[in-house]
Inverse folding.
């Protein structure tokens, strides 16, 4: 008989067994339980780092506590998703004042810094969280369904090909080419600038994934007929017909009539 | 100096005038200009070179045809190629098109070059004749017509003349009446009714609902809880029953897309938005809009009152609805009053409420006709 | 005439011999056989001979109508191909072709068959694109041709009827194009049909009946696609072919006009005969147009219907425009303000829609068709005209044309206001306000500017005739004067600049005619219009004036380029004397 078996009737054995049971059950649960489809909880450090970054780079327009100023809106409640979108696409910090913040040519902050600021903003008030990776790629999405959703909800502003479109007073819906799936979902969740909000009850995460799948499959299909002329429709086509079509054919007619070959 | 021309012409000064004696009043046409020589006129080598150029162009055409034929059999329709400057294009479209283009251009350019270099290029003069016929021919025509009229006794017999006129004047009526009379059902009052009024009976009328219909999403046909419509959201909405339900099988779905499906959609499409109640303007329209809303959730017809395009663009921050066709802009905080663009009437509002489970329903159908105006709209 | 020079002197011995025709080749014999067979039955030799020797003048601007005709023929050829695969039905189907993003999607048979042509028929996309590019080129060329005819005055007697036929052709071409691009039933063209239904509804009194009649019930219905198909494939092509045949037969009978120039008069035609030059040039040009369109369709995509998706009244795409030739009507609709819609006594009159959608095209084409008669009335000119005008020599007509074109252009660019807004980063509202004002202001400005430019060009021509061309060579005289040597025009160049006819305004008569009857008020209006047309006329240089210019000042003029070194003092300077 070994030492452990010899003490099996020790009064502390039950306590130890209970403790062991709790630890094992808790550990298994923690490992196997479904995680909420949100990012992991931000640590207090991250939030503090985020606050410092915010004070240095964003507070001039958004206020020290992100409650807004005349030039920058209140960010309480916009959620981590909004920060990830706006900074991840280079829209924020806004390069110059204007009617709308255009997509940035480059992203000025690293992924970590963006995550820190996002964590701080998310801590101010509940808002849309950064979407789960499962629903931000085209994998598993149905492009046919995605196309139907896109055409009803998105193409009136962004154009059937995602080439972008005009809104009133100089605002516009930007082109969707070369946009990461994550940012597309975040934009739908947060409704940046003039864009309305398409929350998960309106367009479910699976449907959002279908939309991404649709956009990616459109990219893959390319432009089979030749140059797409910006996918802007009959206007550039008419310009090509007048300028190149007529120009070249008149050139041919002029050559035809010239004397002295 | 010639003085009788208008005063605006460039004036020669009042100095010397040497004009009398032998100077014609107007310039005369100097006749055809001298021939411009071509390289093929000047030397046999030039002509030979032209011949080679022409033959080269015709050969290019043959090569183009070959390219077409080879490409046709070598590639299938799914094949794609990346071309710098063009992007990912269909290989068959590109190669068949280039082949055909060269085949045709080769012939065309060759033929024109031949005409320019080797064919005679001395200008030829052809005389014109006055378009008018001679007086004798005209008189002859008049005579023939008069004789014909007389010998047919048409002028002597007024009864024939009258009835002929009547018959000829009226014979096209049967054709017109058949065409116009058989065209289309009469609109009656159908332009003023939508599927929010009741179930479509397939002939343009609607049987009123027993229970008010729910609002469902387009295209997924899911009912909408009021609590899911957050501030800033926009939902594209149709009445329950228009789209096949999500649980329907494929066959049931196809059945459901009966005749009249797109026609009902074209009148019943609605846009649902939620605004903060304090955002509504303090005008008569704004107050009515708020009273027809459910806690700030408003529903408006999506069919533009200008010429009927769907007004889909909702600007969340300004609360404006923009129609992409002709840029009519509607202010949601003021009952969708037109604030810019060619539309005149505001979008009709749909009065909404919730049912006992919290899903949004249409409390009443539209109070006016949706879509573009028409004469008897009222 | 042989082009090879005589190589050997011995050949010259035979130079005086009577020439015998070379024996016919085998090919010529066969052709002669066929021609003989046909001639035995129809006797066309005289007519064919006449046609083969017919002379056509040679100028590139005369080929614009040919571009139009060839583009239409290419549309016919490619269109036949498309009819083999297109299904003109609005019936429901589910797509199961090879284009992935639309698989499983509900759509009409018309749309599905268009996708089939584009993705699953080899060469189908090419033919579809050629058909659409050719349609665009057709209307581009028709418009350019019409402008050429207008600005050169080719519509004057005896060609008024041909002008009217041309206006009708142009208008029908617009309808044909609209019907054609609506056939695939895609989202963009379907939105256009939706707007068309709105236009019909706006017609006073009969609007809703008209819309229900055309669409066989509520919009969209299932009849519009098959009906448009019949119109596009059968009715309009038949009318177009009939009218354009009449159009070119009239050109052949009346003979083509020509630009003024040396050797060209109002009673001749100078150019080249059909056989062999024009057959080669015109035939070759057909292949050039065809080949160009094929190349264009190979490298530039047009009307990507798979991107728009099938038509549904609920979705719409940003940047919804019709094809370019309907742009002016779409622009008018964007610019007409909403307050033009009136309601009273339960009735609504939508002038904001009806003016742009229903009245604009008939009024525009009506005005165009009437123009030759208006101008004839104003000028009182009843003669036949076969010589064209240089546009600068008709300043008022040219200015009117440019003003009309400016009006058209403002409307057309207004239809692209949202594309302009996103491409140039401007506010779409500002652009719309600019075009609204521009509709009235810009044509007036264009009229004034064009008229002044034409008059200036005429004066520049006068200067060129009187003083010659500036050679850029500076000559210094013995006593230290500098002047630029001018080269006088030779008589051929000069004729082009002086050969036009001066037009004077009609005189206002005394108010009563020979019998003492008072002239109607139209006489005053006519005189006033005539004055508006022809005041400020710049007269062509006469030989007297030219002589005076040469001898102007003192002694010898110093123009001859060859005598530059010996020129004595003179008053001549480059820009004229005064």
């Amino acid at each position: 008989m070994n030492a452990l078996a010899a003490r099996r009737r020790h009064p502390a054995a039950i306590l130890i067994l209970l403790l062991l049971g709790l630890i094992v059950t808790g550990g298994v649960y923690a490992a196997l339980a479904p995680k909420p489809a949100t990012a992991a909880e931000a640590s207090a450090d991250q939030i503090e780092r985020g606050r410092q970054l915010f004070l240095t780079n964003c507070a001039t327009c958004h206020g020290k506590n992100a409650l807004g100023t005349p030039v920058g809106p209140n960010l309480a409640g916009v959620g981590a998703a909004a920060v990830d979108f706006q900074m991840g696409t280079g829209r924020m910090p806004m390069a110059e004042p204007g009617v709308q913040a255009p997509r940035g040519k480059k992203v000025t902050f690293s992924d970590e810094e963006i995550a820190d600021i996002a964590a701080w903003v998310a801590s101010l008030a509940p808002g849309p969280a950064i979407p789960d990776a499962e629903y931000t790629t085209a994998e598993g999405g149905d492009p046919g369904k995605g196309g139907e959703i896109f055409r009803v909800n998105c193409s009136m502003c962004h154009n059937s090909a995602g080439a972008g479109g005009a809104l009133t007073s100089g605002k516009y819906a930007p082109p969707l080419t070369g946009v990461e799936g994550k940012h597309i979902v975040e934009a739908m969740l947060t409704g940046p600038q003039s864009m309305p909000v398409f929350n998960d009850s309106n367009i479910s995460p699976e449907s959002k994934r279908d939309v991404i799948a649709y956009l990616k499959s459109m990219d893959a299909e390319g432009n089979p007929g030749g140059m797409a002329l910006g996918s802007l429709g009959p206007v550039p086509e008419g310009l090509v017909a007048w300028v190149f079509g007529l120009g070249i054919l008149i050139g041919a007619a002029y050559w035809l009539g010239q004397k002295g070959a | 100096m010639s003085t009788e021309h208008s005063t605006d012409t460039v004036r020669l000064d009042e100095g010397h005038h040497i004009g009398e004696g032998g100077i014609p009043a107007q310039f005369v046409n100097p006749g055809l200009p001298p021939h411009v020589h071509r390289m093929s006129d000047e030397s046999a080598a030039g002509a030979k070179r032209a011949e080679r150029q022409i033959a080269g162009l015709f050969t290019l055409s043959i090569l183009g045809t070959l390219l077409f034929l080879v490409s046709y059999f070598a590639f299938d329709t799914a094949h794609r190629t990346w071309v710098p400057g063009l992007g990912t294009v269909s290989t068959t479209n590109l190669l068949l098109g280039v082949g055909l283009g060269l085949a045709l251009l080769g012939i065309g350019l060759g033929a024109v070059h031949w005409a320019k270099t080797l064919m005679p290029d001395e200008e030829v003069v052809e005389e014109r004749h006055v378009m008018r016929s001679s007086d004798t021919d005209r008189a002859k025509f008049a005579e023939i017509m008069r004789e014909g009229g007389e010998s047919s006794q048409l002028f002597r017999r007024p009864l024939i003349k009258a009835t002929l006129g009547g018959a000829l004047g009226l014979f096209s009526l049967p054709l017109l009446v058949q065409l116009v009379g058989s065209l289309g059902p009469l609109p009656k009052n159908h332009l003023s009714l939508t599927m929010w009024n009741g179930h479509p009976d397939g002939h343009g009328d609607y049987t009123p609902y027993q229970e008010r219909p729910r609002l469902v999403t387009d295209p997924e046909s899911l009912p909408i809880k009021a609590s899911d419509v957050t501030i800033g959201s926009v939902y594209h909405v149709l009445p329950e029953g228009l789209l096949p339900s999500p649980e329907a099988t494929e066959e049931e779905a196809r059945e459901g897309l009966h005749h009249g499906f797109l026609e009902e959609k074209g009148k019943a499409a609605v846009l649902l938005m939620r605004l903060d109640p304090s955002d509504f303007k303090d005008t008569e329209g704004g107050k009515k809009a708020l009273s027809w809303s459910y806690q700030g959730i408003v529903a408006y017809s999506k069919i533009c009152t200008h010429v009927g395009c769907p007004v889909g663009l909702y600007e969340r921050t300004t609360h404006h609805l923009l129609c992409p066709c002709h840029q009519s802009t509607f202010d949601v905080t003021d009952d969708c009053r037109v604030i810019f663009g060619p539309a005149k009437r505001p979008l009709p509002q749909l009065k909404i409420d919730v049912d006992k489970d919290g899903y949004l329903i249409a409390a009443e159908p539209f109070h006016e006709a949706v879509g573009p105006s028409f004469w008897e709209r009222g | 005439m042989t082009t090879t020079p005589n190589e050997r002197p011995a050949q010259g011995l035979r130079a005086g011999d009577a020439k015998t025709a070379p024996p016919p080749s085998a090919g010529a014999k066969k052709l002669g056989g066929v021609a003989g067979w046909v001639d035995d039955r129809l006797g066309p030799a005289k007519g064919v001979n006449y046609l083969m020797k017919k002379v056509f003048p040679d100028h590139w601007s005369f080929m614009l109508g040919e571009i139009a005709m060839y583009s239409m023929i290419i549309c016919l050829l490619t269109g036949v191909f498309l009819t083999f695969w297109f299904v003109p039905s609005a019936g429901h189907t589910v797509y199961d072709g090879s284009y992935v993003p639309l698989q499983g999607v509900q759509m009409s048979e018309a749309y599905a068959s268009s996708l089939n042509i584009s993705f699953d028929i080899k060469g189908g996309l090419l033919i579809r694109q050629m058909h659409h590019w050719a349609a665009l080129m057709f209307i581009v060329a028709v418009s350019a041709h019409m402008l050429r005819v207008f600005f050169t005055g080719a519509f004057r007697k005896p060609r008024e009827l041909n002008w009217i036929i041309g206006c009708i052709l142009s208008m029908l071409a617009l309808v044909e194009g609209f019907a054609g691009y609506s056939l695939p039933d895609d989202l963009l063209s379907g939105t256009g049909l939706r707007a068309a239904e709105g236009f019909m509804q706006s017609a006073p009194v009969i609007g809703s009946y008209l819309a229900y009649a055309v669409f066989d019930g509520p919009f969209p219905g299932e009849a519009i696609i098959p009906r448009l198909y019949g119109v596009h494939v059968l009715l309009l092509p038949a009318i177009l072919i009939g009218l354009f045949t009449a159009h070119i037969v009239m050109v052949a009978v009346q003979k083509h006009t020509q630009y003024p120039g040396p050797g060209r008069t109002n009673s001749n035609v100078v150019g080249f005969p059909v056989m062999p030059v024009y057959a080669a040039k015109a035939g070759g040009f057909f292949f050039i147009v065809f080949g160009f369109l094929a190349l264009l369709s190979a490298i530039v995509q047009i009307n990507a219907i798979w991107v728009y998706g099938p038509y549904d009244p609920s979705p719409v795409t940003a940047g919804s425009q019709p094809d370019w030739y309907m742009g002016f009507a779409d622009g008018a609709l964007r610019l007409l303000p909403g307050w033009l819609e009136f309601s009273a006594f339960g009735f609504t009159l939508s002038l904001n829609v009806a003016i742009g959608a229903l009245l604009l095209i008939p009024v525009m084409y009506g005005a165009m068709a009437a123009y030759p008669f208006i101008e004839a009335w104003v000028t009182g000119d009843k003669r036949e005209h076969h010589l064209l005008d240089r546009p600068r020599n008709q300043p008022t007509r040219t200015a009117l044309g440019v003003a009309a074109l400016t009006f058209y252009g403002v409307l057309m660019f207004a239809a692209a206001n949202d594309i302009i807004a996103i491409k140039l980063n401007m506010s779409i509202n500002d652009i719309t306000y600019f075009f609204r004002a521009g509709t009235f202001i810009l044509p007036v400005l264009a009229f004034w500017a064009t008229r002044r430019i034409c008059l200036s060009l005429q004066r520049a021509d006068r200067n060129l005739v009187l003083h010659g061309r500036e050679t850029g060579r500076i000559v210094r005289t013995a006593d230290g004067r500098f002047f630029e040597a001018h080269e006088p025009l030779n008589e051929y160049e000069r004729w082009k600049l002086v050969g036009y006819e001066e037009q004077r305004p009609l005189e206002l008569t005394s108010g009563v005619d020979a019998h003492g009857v008072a002239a109607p008020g139209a006489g005053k209006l006519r005189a006033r219009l005539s004055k508006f047309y022809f005041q400020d006329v710049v007269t062509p240089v006469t030989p007297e004036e030219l002589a005076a210019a040469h001898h102007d000042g003192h002694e010898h003029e110093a123009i001859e380029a060859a005598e530059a070194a010996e020129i004595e003092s003179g008053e001549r300077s480059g820009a004229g004397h005064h």
About this structure: The CA atoms of residues 281 and 545 of chain C lie 42 Å apart. Chain C touches chain B through 148 residues (CB under 8 Å).
